[in-house]
Structure formats: C-alpha cells, structure tokens
Amino acid sequence: MKKISLAIAIAATAVSGLAFHASAEPVDEQLFIDGQEMISRAPAPEGHPFDEVLSGWLFREAETRAAEADSFANPGMLDVERGEEIWATVEGSAGKSCASCHNDAAETMKGVGARFPKWDADAKRPIDIELQIDKCRVDNMGAEAYKFDADEQKALTAYIKHQSLGMPVKLDLSEGEMQSWWDKGKDVYYTRTGQLNLSCASCHEASMGKYIRADHLSQGQVNGFPTYRFNTGGLVSIQNRFRGCIRDTRAEMPKAFSDELLALEVYVTWRGTGLSVETPAVRQ
C-alpha cells in the first residue's frame, strides 16, 4: 500500500507541476465559418478571473482550425444533418415531431443555443438543451426521453445549437435560482478532486496556454458543444466531457445531469460570455 501511495503522490506532483512547464500562446487569427465571422475573443464579464475570454479554437493546430472553418470539412456537420432529420421525424403517442410545434428551426431555434442552460420552474433547477429536448419528448410528444449520450440526443442538440451559430453566449442569471446554481458551479470548478488532486481551474485557469502531454490547454470554453473530437471520432456532449475530465483526475464520476454537473455547466457556460456559439466545434 505504501508503494501505491507513493506512486500516486509522484503522479500528482507531475500532473500539477512538471507536465505543464511547456507553453504556447493562442494563435492571433480570426475564426470565420463559411465566411461568417465568429467572436473568438471577448471582454470577460465582471467577476471573471481573466480579462479576456478566448475560444478553444485559438489553441488548436492549424489543421483542426481549418476543419471547423469549413462546414464541408467539419465532420460534425454530418450529425447536424442527422439532427435535421430527427427534427422532422414523428415519434411518440401524440403523433408529433419537433417541427410539429416549432416549425422551421432556423427561425424558432435561433438564439436558443446562446441562452441555455435556463431556469426550469417545473423542475426547480436549471436545464440544458438535452434536458429540454427530453422534457418536450415526454410531455408533448408522448415519447421516451433519450438515454444519456444517445447518438440521436447529440445530433438533435447539435442541430438546435447550430441555429445560433455566431451569436454571443449570454445566460440570464436573474431567472429563478440561477445565481445560486452559478455559485454552486463555481465551487465545483475550484474544488480539487481525485487521486491527482486537480480541479477544473488547475488546467483551464492556472495552466491555460500550457501543454499537458501533447495537448494545448485552453480556457475550457463550452461554446462549441456538442463538439467533434478527432481523438474519439464523433460528437462529444458537455456532460460527457465534464465526466471525462473528472475521471481523468481519478475521481468517481458524477452521474450525467446531476446537480453537481448541471451547476458546473451553468458556471462554465457563463465563463464564455460573449463568445460566439460555434456548434459543432472541432477539437483534437
């Protein structure tokens, strides 16, 4: 047991220190997607630890940046197209599709991706777009909620958020108890967990711009989720990414959409205030 404890202590020291010593600055470029200018740098909101918020796109390799800038080269757009099909598909006992109530998503869903998570008075907690989709399926369509991270859930979420492409992220913290959930999310963000004793801030604040192994650490913005990641070959949801990061600290993963992770989603989304929705972003 002493040998195992010593190995864990050495690993924690390496991750929290030596592994982060190399650094590289974000690129001085502007992101255009199919010719539309994105806000990839924005003044930070009051109370933010940085003066400027930076899109994760600025921290990626040239090939990855180019893939996001061209919808024909962006593999995530295949999921957006799949989401469009799901939008028009009738499911459930009510004989409805998303389009039955919301018509043309290009009009009715524009801006939605920039404003979630939102306060849900029925649930008495914030909900993100995935949970809003499930609520509509159950209450309005008579269909079952999606299983967490089902391909259909990610595709439909990406399609809905893509309708807000280029619009700046701005949450309304005055709704319901959103501010108290922001506070909870901030606590989660700065709490060290796991055998490696790391917090979100350890990588995305204290070590922003540095390398861990071969990965260039960004500010950890979520304005491009669901995001296509080359290393997994598919879309990755926000909740999946949170759980993966917590797993990497060698801590027990919370359940998806738990109070802990929903609060974290509220806080982290706020940290990207002013950045354009980039869904589906492309990352390594």
Largest sheet: 3 strands, mixed
Mean pLDDT: 92
Helical content stands at: 40-55%
Beta-strand content: 5-15%
Quantity of strands, as a count: 11
Shape: globular
CATH architecture of the largest domain: Orthogonal Bundle
Structural description of this entry:
It contains twelve helices and eleven strands. By secondary structure, the protein is mainly α. The protein folds into two domains: 2-73 and 167-283, Cytochrome c-like domain (Cytochrome Bc1 Complex, Chain D, domain 2, Orthogonal Bundle), CATH 1.10.760; 77-162, Cytochrome Bc1 Complex, Chain D, domain 2 (Orthogonal Bundle). The longest helix has 15 residues, at 2-16. The chain is globular, with a radius of gyration of 19 Å. The two termini are 37 Å apart.
Keyword list:
284 residues, mainly alpha, Cytochrome Bc1 Complex, Chain D, domain 2, disordered N terminus
Brief sketch in words of this structure:
With 284 residues, this protein is mainly alpha-helical. The protein is built from twelve helices and eleven strands. The strands form five sheets. It has a three-stranded mixed β-sheet. A two-stranded antiparallel sheet has the order 1-2.
Helix/strand layout:
Blueprint lengths: L1 H15 L15 E2 L2 E2 L3 E3 L8 E3 L7 H8 L7 H11 L10 H5 L2 H4 L3 H4 L2 E3 L4 E3 L1 H13 L9 H12 L15 H13 L9 H5 L6 E2 L2 E2 L10 E3 L4 E3 L1 H11 L10 H13 L10 E2 L1
Parallel strand pairs: 9-11
Antiparallel strand pairs: 1-2, 3-4, 5-6, 7-8, 9-10
Helix pairs in contact: 3-8, 9-12, 11-12
